[in-house]
Write a structure and sequence with these properties.
With about 120 residues, this protein is α+β, with helices and mostly antiparallel strands. It is built from three helices and six strands. The longest helix is centred in the N-terminal third of the chain and has 12 residues. The protein is globular.
Length: about 120
């Protein structure tokens, strides 16, 4: 697998099977697998008038840093300060914009239907 991150544009992945995927930075930020982003997407699904967090003053989201997490994921820090999402290779395959089914809403990600984590770890 080969990764190419253009911090102001997007992430290109050449997968081991020879296929390629491209994710814009804005799309990656919107589809963050972090719990707070999953909850926001669920709120938007049930209420289209959900108030969204404010955007950064500069307007466009960029990636300011990225690092590999073991050999299974990448973690990206965005210009708005968000860095909580760990994008596993499996998750990136699932949200590949080119492979999403016709008519599937790009605002929602696999796993968004999971129940909220009111008591993580059962504590």
């Amino acid at each position: 697998m080969h990764l190419d991150l253009k911090k102001d544009r997007g992430l290109t992945i050449q997968w081991a099977d020879g296929t390629g995927s491209y994710y814009s930075i804005a799309y990656l930020r919107r589809m963050s697998p972090a719990a707070d982003q999953r909850e926001l997407r669920k709120a938007m699904k049930s209420n289209p008038l959900t108030v969204l967090p404010s955007a950064p003053a500069s307007g466009e989201i960029t990636a300011v840093d990225a690092e590999l997490v073991g050999n299974y994921a990448i973690q990206i820090t965005f210009s708005d300060g968000h860095s909580a999402g760990i994008y596993t290779w499996e998750y990136l395959r699932q949200i590949d914009p080119a492979l999403r089914e016709e008519g599937e809403r790009a605002e929602f990600a696999p796993g968004d239907e999971a129940p909220p984590h009111h008591r993580p770890l059962g504590l």
